[in-house]
Amino acid sequence: MKQNNLYVGCDMHKHYSVFYVLERSDQTNTSQARWFRMNHDEWDRLIDFLDALPKGTPVAFETVGSWYWFADLLENLGLQPRMAHALKAKVMMGHLHKTDKLDAKGLAKLLRTGTLPTVWIATKAIRDARALTRGRIAFVHLRTRIKNRISHTYQAYR
Question: For the chain, how long is the longest CA-to-CA vector?
C-alpha cells in the first residue's frame, strides 16, 4: 500500500497566506510540491483547502501577531498546528532572500526533516486569560496616565 506523507508550510500575513504542500512518498522516496495563495477574506475557499488535507497533517506557521484564529481553525479541522520560532527558523532555512514562497517551502522542509524549531501553543483558555490580563494592564496604565495628566494640569494652573 502506497502511503504519502504531507508536510504543509504556511507563510501567514494579515490578509493572505501562502501555503506550500510537500507530498513525499515513502516507497518511491520522491516528492511533489504544490503552492497555494489564499486570501483570508475567501473564508470558504480557505476552509475547503484545509479540510481537504488528511486529518493529522502537520501545518507549520511562524509566530505572527494574529495566529490564534489560525491555530484554532487547524485544530478544529483535525490538523496539527506547529508554530515555528520565527528567528530560529529563518536561520535554519538560510535563505539570502525573503519571499513568501521561500518561507512556506522552508517551513515545510523543516517540518519534513523533523528540525522545525517549534514554540508551545497555549490552549484557548490560557490565551483568553492572558488577553484579559493584558487588557486590564493596558487600561490601568491608561487610567494612571489620565490621572497624572489631570493632576499636572491642575498643578500648572493653581
Answer: 87
Cα–Cα dist 133/23, whole Å: 42
Please name every residue paired with 31 in a beta bridge, in sequence order, or none if there are none. 24
Angle at 44 between CA 39 and CA 46, to 5 degrees: 45
Which helix (H) or strand (E) segment is 147 a member of? Answer: helix 124-156
Per-residue pLDDT, 35: 85
Q: What is the pLDDT of residue 81?
A: 95
- Residue 84 is placed in which grid cell? 515555528
Which H helix or E strand runs over 60? strand 58-62
Reduce the DSSP state of residue 158 to 3 states and report it.
coil
Bridge pairing between strands 31-39 and 16-25 = antiparallel
The mean pLDDT of the chain is: 87
**Among the listed residues 90, 106, 97, the one whose alpha carbon sits nearest the alpha carbon of residue 8:** 106
The reply to whether the predicted model has a pTM over 0.70 is: yes
CA distance 120 to 118: 7
Distance CA 46, CA 151 (A): 52
Give CA–CA dist 135/141, Å, rounded. Answer: 10
Cβ(62)–Cβ(117) under 8 Å?
no
